[in-house]
Specification:
Blueprint lengths: L1 H61 L3 H16 L1 H5 L7 H14 L18 H19 L3 H9 L2
């Protein structure tokens, strides 16, 4: 009878451990999915604004059309001073912010007011910095894709 009792306790213990593990895994998946769905609108806007900033920087570096260049310059500064700053990584100066600032510093040097001082398009000096913005945006956006259950577990349990 003693051997049967040990077997019963072993079955009960293993069942309890299995049930607890299933509950913990289910809870982790639920919290991870819930937090992702809450962040989804922000991530979509962040993607949209990063792509727009990269597009306008690229256009400023490559277009020969003066009107299109002027419009992209206005759009770049609008993104720089507003919407893109909202979705960059909060609390730190992100790589996107640094690359936008470097591009903006170069753009400030380009004359804009009189026909005599208009730049010759395209502006090849802006090509490298435009690519830098695109790469910084890519890095920012792909870092969000890597956030999954394991990153949540690491934050939750502190490893």
């Amino acid at each position: 009878m003693g051997g049967n009792s040990t077997l019963e306790w072993t079955k009960l213990t293993l069942t309890a451990i299995g049930g607890t593990l299933a509950l913990v895994v289910g809870l982790i998946q639920y919290v991870s999915t819930s937090s992702l769905s809450v962040r989804q609108p922000f991530l979509a806007k962040q993607t949209e604004l990063c792509l727009s900033a990269s597009e306008h920087a690229a256009r400023l570096a490559t277009t020969k059309d003066r009107e299109q260049w002027k419009k992209s310059r206005e759009e770049f500064w609008m993104l720089y001073w507003g919407p893109l700053a909202v979705v960059e990584e909060a609390g730190t100066q992100s790589d996107v912010a640094k690359k936008m600032q470097a591009f903006g510093d170069l753009l400030k040097e380009v004359p804009q007011n009189t026909d005599a001082s208009q730049p010759t398009l395209p502006l090849d000096d802006l090509r490298g910095p435009a690519i830098d913005i695109a790469r910084a945006c890519e890095s920012l956006l792909t870092s969000k894709w890597q956030a999954g259950i394991m990153s949540w577990v690491q934050r939750w349990f502190g490893y």
